[in-house]
Structure formats: structure tokens, C-alpha cells
Write a structure and sequence with these properties.
Strand content: 5-15%
Structural class: alpha/beta
Strand order of the largest sheet: 4-3-5-6
Bound molecules: 3'-phosphate-adenosine-5'-phosphate sulfate
Radius of gyration: 18 Å
Distance between the termini: 33 Å
């Protein structure tokens, strides 16, 4: 994985978007008590949160989400662009990150900054990631779906293993300032998920605004928002003719990709690695 990636914290990150300096900047980043981080394992709903958060924080004004690209609206912590866009941003600052818990900025741990951690069914995450690897030139070629599953399960993908990431964020000592959400509950009832986020952030939204935010952030609406659908990225970097970034936006698409043997192999490994943990997930009984 060396050619396209940099090693950091025991896993790889894409070289096209990260540098040794940008990672150092992230580690040394001065976290403020009113900062808000949305943290995800890749392909778990990050872009969705980049749409929802600004609307919650500004009371439902859609202007920023219609005029500012997602990556500048709710910047990434870690990539080279971070310093440029976060530099003198007024509070409250909302950021996204794929970092596991132990790789957050040093000052994060003693701050009061809040975290929204979104988890997605690892099977759907793997499917989404497989298609993304096929369209993004800064990621390794995924190979066949079967080959990609092995890479995903062994952590030979950017940001490492799904199980390591999820366990790192489920075993923190920041209880009280972290909200756990699943992609599945967002798909099932977006309005309720937005309300949970707003309450966690201490923002009161009227029923009308809540409805407006949920409608605006519906998959079909986001898909046509050029500030959110990654169509501003040149085709040689993200080729949406191979697979659109906002691809399907559903739960359970893994059923269209996994055969019985792959499903059994995948489930057995995830189950074994999650042994001893007790986080109920909506996909546990599938
Ligand atoms: S990334 O590259 O890590 O930032 O990707 P990320 O944004 O985390 O995940 C992309 C998947 O999230 C889906 N998505 C949505 N689903 C439902 N509703 C809305 N509004 C929405 N916005 C993004 C996106 O379609 C990707 O999932 P798949 O399964 O590939 O469609």
C-alpha cells in the first residue's frame, strides 16, 4: 500500500490529501472546548454529517450548504487543506475526521469538545468502499470484490481495520461528550437522528426547521447539490462515471454483493474481533 499512501499511527492515509506536515498539524491542532468533531470510519456517512451539522448550528439556513463545498464547510482534520480552511475560523468550529481515538489532536483529550461518532454496518461500509476504490484515483485498485473483502478485513485499506476503529471510539474516557449514531438509524428516521444531534449540541430547533433540515439532507436532494456530491472534483481524481460518490444511500446493499461464503467469512471475522464488546448494533441480528 506504499505507493499511494503514507503510514501514520499504524495505518495508511492517502498521500494525495495528506502529508507529514498536515498530520503533524492535526496532532498539534489546538482544540477549543466548543469544537465539534464528527468522526467516522470511511464510507459511514461523513458527507451526510457535513450537510447536517451546519444546518443544525445555523438554525436551518441552507445558504452555506448550497454555496460552500462540503470539505470547506465542515473541514477535515488531517489533510493538507485543514490549515488553510480552519486557520482563523470563528467558533463553533465543526470538523470531520476518520482518525481512530488515539490519533486525535493532543489537546482534544483534555478539552470539552464534543464528538458525534457514526458507525455503519461493516458489510455495507465494505461495499461502499469497494465502489469508492474503483472510482477514486488516490486509492489502491480494489481488485475483485472478493480480493477487496480480504483487504478490508485485514485492514489493508486507508485508516485501517473497521473493528479497530469502532473499538477505539467505543472505549474512550470521554463519556458525556460523545454521541453514538448509526448510519442505519439516520436512514430509518433522519428527523429523529437530527433531533438527537441537535439536543446533544444544545441547539433547539423548531419542528419546522427540523423538518426542513431532514428534507434538505435527504439522499436525493444531496445527490443534486454540487457542493456536496463531489462533482466539483476533477474526473481524473474521482470518476463518477465509474461510480457516483453518492452511490445508493441505502442499508443492506451488501446482499447484492456478498455470496454465502463471503458473508460467512466476513461475519465470523468481525464477530471474533468484536468479542468481549457489548455495543448493540442494528445489524447484529441479520
Ligand atoms: S467518505 O469518502 O468516507 O467521506 O464517505 P462517506 O461520506 O463517509 O460515506 C459515503 C456513503 O454515505 C452515503 N450517503 C448517504 N446515504 C444516505 N443519505 C444521504 N443523504 C447520504 N449522503 C451520503 C453515500 O451514498 C455513500 O454510501 P453508498 O452506500 O456508497 O451509497
Amino acid at each position: 500500500m506504499g505507493e499511494r499512501n503514507l503510514l501514520f499511527g499504524g495505518f495508511f492515509v492517502p498521500k494525495m490529501t495528506h502529508s507529514a506536515e498536515s498530520l503533524k498539524y492535526a496532532v498539534e491542532f489546538q482544540v477549543h472546548d466548543d469544537d465539534i468533531f464528527a468522526v467516522t470510519y470511511p464510507k459511514s456517512g461523513t458527507t451526510w454529517i457535513q450537510e447536517i451539522l451546519p444546518l443544525i448550528l445555523n438554525g436551518g439556513d441552507v445558504t452555506p450548504v448550497q454555496t460552500i463545498p462540503s470539505w470547506d464547510r465542515v473541514p477535515w482534520l488531517g489533510p493538507t487543506r485543514t490549515a488553510l480552511v480552519l486557520g482563523d475560523r470563528p467558533p463553533p468550529r465543526a470538523m470531520v475526521s476518520h482518525m481512530p481515538y488515539h490519533c486525535m489532536p493532543r489537546s482534544f483529550y483534555t478539552s470539552k469538545a464534543k464528538v458525534i461518532y457514526v458507525t455503519r454496518n461493516p458489510k455495507d461500509t465494505a461495499v461502499s468502499s469497494f465502489h469508492f476504490h474503483g472510482m477514486a484515483s488516490f486509492l489502491d485498485d480494489p481488485g475483485t470484490f472478493d480480493q477487496f473483502l480480504d483487504k478490508f478485513l485485514s485492514g489493508q485499506v486507508v485508516f485501517g481495520k473497521w473493528t479497530d476503529h469502532v473499538k477505539s471510539w467505543r472505549n474512550t474516557d470521554i463519556e458525556g461528550r460523545i454521541l453514538y449514531l448509526t448510519y442505519e438509524e439516520m436512514v430509518q428516521d433522519l428527523r429523529a437522528a437530527v433531533l438527537r444531534m441537535a439536543q446533544f449540541l444544545g441547539r433547539e430547533l423548531s419542528p419546522d426547521v427540523l423538518e426542513k433540515v431532514a428534507n434538505h439532507c435527504h439522499f436525493n436532494n444531496m445527490k443534486t447539490n454540487i457542493m456536496s456530491n463531489y462533482s466539483l472534483v476533477p474526473q481524473d481524481i474521482m470518476d463518477s462515471s465509474k461510480s457516483p460518490f453518492l452511490r445508493k444511500g441505502t442499508t443492506g446493499d451488501w446482499r447484492n454483493h456478498f455470496n454465502a461464503e463471503q458473508e460467512a467469512r466476513f461475519s465470523a471475522i468481525i464477530k471474533k474481533e468484536m468479542e468481549g464488546t457489548s455495543f448493540p448494533f442494528p445489524w447484529d441480528d441479520e
